[in-house]
Structures are given as C-alpha cells and as structure tokens.
Write a structure and sequence with these properties.
Chain lengths: ~100, ~190
C-alpha cells in the first residue's frame, strides 16, 4: 500500500471534524478560535493534497493555501481584539454568557 | 508512508488535545504541535514553501498572539471547561460529519485516486503568485492592513466605559468582579 490521495483526504476530514467538535463544545472564545484554526488547517491540507496529486504541475493549490493562511492570520488578530474588548466590557470570554448584540 | 502516518498521528493527537485539554495553555501548546505536524504533512506533499509559511505564521505569530490573549484575559476564566450538556451533541455532530466525509472520499477514490505526487518548483509558484494571482495578492495585503487597523481600533476604543463597568442592561451579579490582574493587563496593553 503506497501513499495515496485518500490518506490525505481522510486526515483532512478527521482534522476538520475535530475542529468542528471544538467549536461546538468549547465555551471559551479563545478555544473556539483555536478550533477554527484547526479547521482552516484541515482545508489547507485538503487543497494542497488535491493539487499535489493531480498529476501535472500546478501551483494553484499552494497559492490558495497561502491566501487561506493570510486570511487566517488577519482573522485571528481581529477576533482576539474583539475577545479582549469583550473581556474588558463584560468581564468574561465565556461564549454562553455573551448573548447580546449591542455593545 | 511511515512518515505520513507519524505526521498524521501527531496531528490528530495534538488536535484532540486542543479540543479536550482542560488547561488552556496546554491547549495552545497542543495547537502549536498540530501546526508543526501539519507543516510536516505539507513537506510530504512537496510543498516546502507552504511548510515554511505554516511554521512561521502559525507556529510563530498566531500562537504568540493567542498566548498573549490568554495572558491578558484572566486565565481562571478559561478553566471549568466542563460543559457536559453540549458535549455529546457536539461529538455526535462531528462524528456524523466525519462519517459522511469519509464515505464520500472513499466513494470518490474509486473514481479518482492517484499515488503520484507532483512537486511545484519555487519559480513556478512565485510566477503564479505574482503574475496570475497578483490582484488577489494585493487585495490580501489590503485585508491584512484593514485587519491590523481594525484590531487596533477595537482594542483601544471606549476608554471611558472601561472605568464605569457594566452598562449592558444585564442584571448585576453575573459578571464577576475584575481582578487586579486583569487591570494590570489592560494597562500593559494600553501602554504598548
């Protein structure tokens, strides 16, 4: 049995589902963010794997992965700023207690 | 093959640690391990550039920012991660999604499955990134700038309302008193 595309696809699916579990089950906003990072990584693995196994030389998958990483970095910065702000104004980062939309 | 299974095992174990560990600092370190293992998977896919980017941005920047956020918000806030009410539902949803995805991938592999990996030379990657994808690249830089400015604005705004604490209309008492530690964190953040 040699290494094939299916292995990477299954790894990506498992990583994504673990991230999904984290997003659904965790209560702290920072932990939810970390789980979202896991899901983004799973998508990256999938895209890069499909691009690498396609059989001809194409850098599109890697470029898309670079963009995903860029957006993920921006997202983490913004989201953690929001978390800090929430913590200062509400005194908690528990997702269950943050249930209003006005500041 | 062996390398792949090692990297995959480390990735999944660390990811599991991220979502189950009770100590949030341990969770952050597990995330670092997961990112490193994913970088190893990228190397196995002949995407060395991505592996480096992954290590630099995730292993360096994102983890540091997350650890800073943990330090500035109160650490005790993140303990008590025992929500038994939602956990079975979340596990069920994740397992169901994994089942669906795995079935789809296995069914798909009968139709298209390859065992040959193709590496992309740096030159091709750079040319594609800066010629074909030049406009999205610039937009990405703009997005980063907007996110940076937005984070600064969100982090700084509302200085007065910090002093008078809750004005959110929630009944008092469900908001725990702020500890001196968090105030110190605020001052440090403002001073930065």
């Amino acid at each position: 049995m040699t290494l094939q595309l299916l292995h990477f696809q299954l790894l990506s699916a498992a990583l994504f589902c673990i991230g999904l579990y984290g997003v659904l089950a965790r209560r702290s906003a920072v932990l939810v963010l970390m789980s979202i990072e896991l899901m983004l990584n799973a998508v990256n693995v999938y895209v890069v794997a499909v691009a690498a196994f396609r059989g001809f030389e194409s850098s599109t998958g890697q470029v898309i992965a670079v963009f995903v990483i860029t957006i993920a970095a921006a997202e983490v910065g913004l989201a953690l700023a929001i978390v800090m702000r929430l913590f200062r104004s509400r005194g908690t980062v528990n997702m269950d207690e943050i249930d209003v939309m006005r500041g | 093959m062996l390398l792949f299974f090692a990297a995959a095992a480390v990735t999944l174990f660390a990811a599991f640690g991220v979502v189950t560990s009770r100590n949030i600092v341990h969770a952050a370190l597990f995330l670092l391990a997961a990112m490193g293992a994913v970088a190893g998977v990228f190397v196995l896919l002949y995407a060395e550039f991505l592996a480096l980017v992954q290590l630099l941005i995730y292993g360096g920047a994102v983890i540091i920012v997350i650890l800073f956020a943990l330090m500035l918000t109160r650490a005790s806030e993140h303990l008590g991660e025992s929500d038994t009410r939602r956990r079975p539902f979340a596990a069920l949803a994740a397992a169901a999604l994994f089942g669906v995805m795995a079935a789809a991938f296995v069914a798909d592999s009968a139709w298209f499955n390859s065992t040959t990996r193709v590496s992309v030379p740096f030159r091709t990657l750079a040319e594609d990134l800066f010629v074909v994808w030049a406009v999205p690249f610039e937009i990405a830089s703009l997005v980063l700038l907007v996110a940076l400015v937005g984070a600064v604005v969100i982090g700084r705004a509302g200085r007065e309302e910090d002093e008078t604490f809750p004005e959110t209309g929630e009944p008092d008492g469900d908001e725990p008193a702020r500890t001196p530690r968090s105030r110190r964190g605020e001052r440090r953040r403002r001073g930065a």
